[in-house]
Fold this sequence. Notes:
By secondary structure, this protein is of the alpha+beta class. The chain has helices spanning 11-20, 55-72, 96-109; strands at 22-25, 29-35, 43-47, 81-87. A four-stranded mixed beta sheet has the order 1-2-4-3, with helices on both faces. Helix 2 (55-72) crosses helix 3. It is globular.
Amino acid sequence: MLPAAHRLRSRDDFTVALRQGVRAGTRRVVLHWAQTDEAHPTRVGFVVSKAVGNSVVRNRTQRRLRHLAAARLPVLPADGGLLVVRALPAAAGATSSDLAGDVDRGLRRLGLTPS
């Protein structure tokens, strides 16, 4: 589970990450990263649209992505970051290991984890 302090909930924060941040795309996900000046722990949010599938598929995809993000919190910068993980339609049929590989690849492209 993603700790409450690390959840991205504000529409304004999503907007900052999506419009002002940098992004890295893979086959199944697109990661948006914005470094802010605010003193808060790195927060992570998720966008899983109806293009991914019905509500059952969307919720399952979001749970898997949330689990992957929680496991990667220790390697993310500690302060002021906003990370949005946007699922693409291909994420619906992907295995957890495929999603993990795409998330890791995206984090490396953003320079958030070592190569």
